[in-house]
Amino acid sequence: MIIAIYATLGVFLLLASRNPERHISLISFTIWSSIVHGGVMALQSLSNPMHAGHLIGDVPALFIVAAVLAWLSPQAFKAPFK
To answer: Given pLDDT bands bounded at 50, 70 and 90, which one contains residue 69?
Structure first.
């Protein structure tokens, strides 16, 4: 299910990339939801050794996505704090 959600989000981000100024809220949501999802996943992985593998792959991937989008669209990263 999560793959379907992220695939759909990816399609909408590709569409938003044509005119990112008009889609700040979508880009902001992607940045912040990736940070929160990565943080929650990291905490859960640390508390349950069975899921420690997420610390190597999934958690860094989510933080990298957030960092790249924040670098490409700093106004989206700051949007919730305006």
So the answer is: very high
Q: How many Cβ atoms sit within 10 Å of the Cβ of residue 9? A: 15
First to last CA, the chain: 33
Domain ranges of the chain: 2-81
| pLDDT digits 0-9 by tens, 41-51 | 999 999 998 98
44 vs 60: CA distance, rounded Å: 14
Separation between Cα atoms, residue 71 and residue 14, nearest integer Å: 16
Computed from CA positions of residues 41, 45, 47, 51, in that sequence, does the dihedral angle turn out positive or negative? positive
